[in-house]
Amino acid sequence: MKRSLFILVLAASAFGCKKNNPTPQYDLSGTWVLSSTKLGGPTITVADYPCIANLKLIFGTGNSATVSWKTTGACWIDQAHTTDLSATDGTVLTFTRQGNDLTFPPASSVASKGHGTITSVNGKLQLSIKDTIVISTQGTFYGDNEYIKQ
Fold first, then answer.
1. CATH number of this structure's domain 20-149
2. From CA 98, how far away is CA 84, in angstroms rounded?
3. Is 42 in contact with 70 (CB distance < 8 Å)?
């Protein structure tokens, strides 16, 4: 009887408890390259417009990231050459972090706070940043940018 009770207790302890497997907090530090962007129109990808990969976010150990945009000429993101992508090299972005969620202050007076989420997609870390921009003469635009950690 004691042996049966011992086996029952051992089996209950081995199989009775589920392990809590939370999502790990991913390492943010390093260089993240823009892979796609969307602002009120079609999604622009690096496959179609390789120059968008010139836009990088470099994260250190604190709560800031530096924009890296070292390119000459315009990065045209449409066939008609009416829309281009650019950034200001050296701009420092501050953020707050809770787990794998980031919050960026508004980039301009017409923008909302940016919200970022770090996920693992096909073995690579991906940072998705979403925000809203309201331009009184043109309307409201929802931004969606995807960065891949290098």
1. 2.40.128
2. 33
3. no
Asked if residues 127 and 149 have their Cβ atoms less than 8 Å apart, the reply is: yes
Query: The pTM is what?
Result: 0.79
Q: For residues 77 and 52, is the Cβ–Cβ distance under 8 A?
A: yes
Residue by residue, DSSP assigns 31-86 as EEEEEEEEESSSPEETTT-GGGGGEEEEE-SSSEEEEEE--SS-EE-STTS--EE-
Q: In angstroms, what CA-CA distances link 53 with 44, 117, 132?
A: 11, 19, 22
Could you give the CA distance from residue 47 to residue 20 in angstroms, rounded to a whole number? 39
CA geometry: angle 19, 20, 21, nearest 5 deg:
105
The answer on pLDDT for 1 being more than 70 is no
Average pLDDT, the chain: 84
The CB density around residue 75, as the number of other CB atoms within 10 Å, is: 19
The residue-averaged pLDDT of 107-111 equals: 74
Burial class (CB in 10 A: 0-12, 13-18, 19+), 14: exposed
Domain ranges of the chain: 20-149
